[in-house]
Amino acid sequence: MDVTAGASGFSPPKTLAFMQQQLASLTRHSLQLPLVTVTGSAEPWVTIDGRRLLNLASNCSLSLSTHPLVRQAAKAAIDDHAAGTCTSRLLGGNPPIAEELERRFAAFKGTEAALLFSSGYMANIGVIPALVGPRDQILGDTLNHASTHDGIRLSGATYHPFRHNDMAHLQDLLAHAPPKERKLVITESIFSMDGDQAPLGDVADLCRRYQAMLLVDEAHATGCIGPGGRGLVAQLGLEQEVTLAVNTLGKALGSHGAIVTASQLVIDYLRHFVRTFIFTTGLPPASLAAALAALAFLEDHPQVVDRLQRNATFLRDGLRALGFDTLASETHIIPLRISDANTTLQVAYALTNAGVFAGPIRFPAVSRGTARIRASVVVGHSQEDLGFALSAFARVGRCFGLIA
Question: Which domains does the chain have, with CATH numbers?
Answer without folding.
Answer: 31-60+302-399 (3.90.1150.10), 68-300 (3.40.640.10)
